[in-house]
Amino acid sequence: MARTGLTFDNVLKRLGDFKIKCSDYYVPMNMLTYGVGVHGDFLEVGGEEIGFSPLGRAQLCRFIKPGLGQIFGDCSEMNRMNLFNQFLPEAIEGQPNKEIFVRSHDNLIRGCLSNSYGVFDDFKLVQLVKNVLGEKAKEARVTSFSKDDGRGHMNVSFIWDNDNIELGKLDDGKPDIAKRGISISNSELGLGSVRIEPMLYRLICSNGMVRAMASQANLMRHFGDPKKLEKKIGGIIWNLDKLYIDMVNKVKAAREARITKIEVQKFIRETARYFHVSDKTDKIIEAWHKEEGDDKFAVANAFTRAAHESFEGRDKYDLEVVGNKIVDMDITRMLKQIEDADKAKDARKKESEEIKIWSESYALVQ
Fold first, then answer.
1. DSSP assignment of 347-366, as one string?
2. Residues 6+ apart with CB under 8 A from 49
3. Based on the number of CB atoms within 10 Å of its own CB, is 300 exposed (0-12), middle (13-18) or buried (19 or more)?
4. What is the pLDDT of residue 17?
5. Coil, strand, or helix at residue 30?
6. How far apart are CA 165 and CA 202, in angstroms?
7. Are 167 and 202 in contact, with CB atoms under 8 Å apart?
8. d(CA 257, CA 298)
9. Which DSSP letter does residue 12 get?
10. pTM value?
11. pLDDT digits (tens, 9 = 90+) for 155-195
12. Where do the structural domains in the chain lie, given as residue ranges?
């Protein structure tokens, strides 16, 4: 089992140290000054000239000129200055008090967002979870932690070591044991959200299977009253037991759902393509070979096992989510989609060959 050596208190210390170096500003647009100095672009905020992180630059550009954020980094210096012409008095006439939320870290602009953005820091989130868990937090062990991958994300997962759930039997007849846990993610400065999700952690491969649910119950945006967000988070943590039961039942059912008609590896490749993670296919198939099987669980496990063995941060989390979607999905429907895609591909190939033959025949006649 993977060991980070971290506790709740260790994570809080790291997040607290990060937060100390952050400064927040709510600045009217007419008080912002953009410039180019010896060391690059900067904003003058709070009487200081502060440079940009890539995320901060892209967010500010997107905020003041929708659609241009993604190309800002490739612009020439002159074009960048043209973008910031919107800071001129005539550009903000009629809305002189419009504010932007600006966060800096280590003297770099880290984020630029609407002033309606509800600040919910990583430190505050993890502290809240710890407080809600109470004595249970002392029994938890952090299995993974990542902070700030350039997109403003924080992810932390933990399990209870004294907890054992039997999911079924392994090939050698021994019980397949998992422990309960929780995965938390926060998009501190994205268009993002807070996620609180139950997790099963399989001991056989240190595999955390996060239970992804696309509902506002666990996907909470950073807008509105932060107090309401705190209440939602507390309620979710206290009601996780019924979600664990649902998760265990679906995993057990997935062991009985067989993949027929096509090779399992092809099913994995097509499923990876369907969920837009084709670039990770080789690692997923490699993980499947370590615990092969022709049931839906074996495929889902390959995705989540690859997440833990080959990836970190957001890539790891995304594969875990896909693994859980596979547990939920209808195998018959997925096989039908793959079959229809193959038929369409064959039809296009046949049509292409017929056009080629027709073109060659036409050329001979001419």
1. HHHHHHHHHHHHHHHHHHH-
2. 35, 37, 42, 43
3. buried
4. 93
5. helix
6. 9
7. yes
8. 10
9. H
10. 0.70
11. 888 998 888 889 888 888 889 899 998 888 888 776 557 88
12. 21-114, 122-240
